[in-house]
Specification:
CATH class of the largest domain: Alpha Beta
Helix content: 40-55%
Number of strands: 11
Radius of gyration: 38 Å
CATH superfamily of the largest domain: Tandem AAA-ATPase domain
CATH topology of the largest domain: Rossmann fold
Strand order of the largest sheet: 7-8-6-9-10-5-11
Number of helices: 16
Shape: elongated
Order of helices and strands: HHHHHEEHEEHHEHEHEHEHEHEHHHE
Strand content: 5-15%
Number of domains: 2
Structural class: alpha/beta
Largest sheet: 7 strands, parallel
CATH architecture of the largest domain: 3-Layer(aba) Sandwich
Length: 423
């Protein structure tokens, strides 16, 4: 087997290689000297000079990173502590956007934190709205809405000419902003609720009602319409309601807030206590119950109200109470029912899709909550209504028992029909 020698190119002469390397090193030294001369011409303190030096060092591969502390420069701001404690405002002066509500809602009334270098926590108030300074933006909120053709105004009450001091009384008319969206059955519902809470329903002393429409018939819109009307109008021209509380299951708190803003926008000042800490809840309730607070509506869950019911014990804390999913009040012995019943507020509205139950005790609890004493106390109701009605429905009941049960049932229906609207 023959072996073939492979021709391998020989490397450069050692003398040539050393000369080449020496030449390259001399060129690098000359470039470095030129770079140093160019950098010496520029001011080392100027931004352009520092930038040029950094670029040159990066190209040469000898960039050295020096880290400096940021906090000393941040904390050296004049009046930094005072600035950190100022109320939070969105980063624009004029205007307001719905997305701000989500931020304010989660941060809510205040934020507790410990400033740098301090051992004590600081409380920073977070405003719930932005002052709109321009007259044009104010006109947007106060813009009047006219009714489309074919839709009649909804006049809830008009003073009679024969009434005394009729000149000082003002008609109560629902704002066209809401009337244009009301269906016929909803107009009837708003009128019914107004008659009950205003005491115009009948000769009986009635100040509350139960709206028992089926789901999807707009109980929320009817309630918002009545709420908005009473917050802005009254018999003497002054608002009939200054403070209103909406109590609802926890899952519906944010829904009520969204519905109110959907229909009336920023025309109502409200606070919704949802996903809040205990401190935020206490601060929100205190802000609402304050005599000089601009807040008009408080939306709160049943559990939150029960735990903080003592804060609503004084008169004037609530002029109108609306309870959604009111079947939760069918037992008058629960702590939630007792806490709400103790509220110093006569105008009470219950919203429920199924208030009519076979259990007369549960039915009595709900009716008695809206209008205490209209059916007597629990003992009287059980003896006068419940026992005869139940006995008259038994298969073995005598004719007299059936007749008495039918009479008491008709009498009960006649009374409760004044405070219950069922559609």
């Amino acid at each position: 087997m023959e072996e073939y020698d492979e021709d391998v190119p020989s490397s450069s002469d050692p003398s040539d290689s050393s000369d080449e390397f020496a030449g390259e090193s001399e060129e690098e030294e000359e470039e470095e000297n030129d770079d140093e001369e160019r950098s010496a011409v520029k001011s080392p303190t100027s931004d352009e000079g520092r930038k040029s030096q950094n670029v040159d060092a990066l190209l040469r591969g000898n960039l050295v990173v020096r880290r400096q502390s940021l906090l000393p420069r941040v904390l050296s701001v004049t009046d930094g502590a005072a600035v950190a404690r100022k109320p939070f405002k969105p980063p624009f002066s004029n205007g307001y956007h719905d997305r701000n509500d989500q931020l304010v809602h989660r941060l809510w009334a205040r934020k507790r934190f410990v400033p740098w270098g301090s051992s004590r926590p600081a409380l920073v108030l977070i405003t719930n709205c932005v002052n709109i300074s321009s007259a044009a933006e104010k006109d947007v909120l106060e813009e009047s809405v006219s009714l489309p053709a074919g839709i009649d105004p909804l006049v809830l009450w008009h003073p009679e000419e024969s009434e005394e001091q009729a000149d000082n009384l003002m008609p109560i008319v629902v704002d066209p902003l809401l009337v244009r969206f009301l269906r016929p059955h909803q107009r009837e519902g708003v009128q019914f609720m107004f008659d009950c809470v205003s005491g115009l329903s009948s000769t009986v002393n009635i100040s509350g009602c139960i709206l028992a429409d089926d789901m999807g018939l707009g109980k929320t819109l009817q309630s918002i319409t009545l709420l908005y009307t009473l917050l802005h109008q009254g018999f003497d021209g002054k608002p009939m309601v200054k403070k209103a509380i909406i109590v609802t299951p926890t899952s519906l708190v944010s829904n009520w807030e969204a519905e109110i803003k959907k229909w009336v926008g920023e025309r109502v000042q409200l606070v919704a206590l949802c996903e809040s800490t205990r401190d935020d809840v206490v601060f929100g309730i205190d802000s609402f119950t304050s005599p000089h607070s601009p807040l008009q509506v408080l939306i709160v869950s049943y559990e939150t109200f029960r735990m903080h019911s003592s804060k609503f014990s004084h008169s004037g804390s609530c002029d109108l109470l609306i309870c959604d999913e009111a079947h939760r009040l069918k037992n008058d012995q629960t702590l939630t029912n007792r806490a709400l019943a103790a509220l110093a507020c006569k105008r009470r509205i219950l919203l429920s899709g199924t208030p009519m139950q076979n259990d007369l005790e549960e039915f009595f609890a709900m009716v008695n909550f809206t209008n205490p004493g209209i059916l007597g106390d629990a003992t009287y109701f059980r003896r006068y209504y419940e026992t005869p009605i139940i006995c008259g429905r038994e298969p073995t009941a005598a004719e007299e028992e059936k007749k008495l049960g039918a009479e008491r049932s008709a009498e009960l229906s006649s009374t409760v029909n004044q405070v219950i609207l069922l559609m």
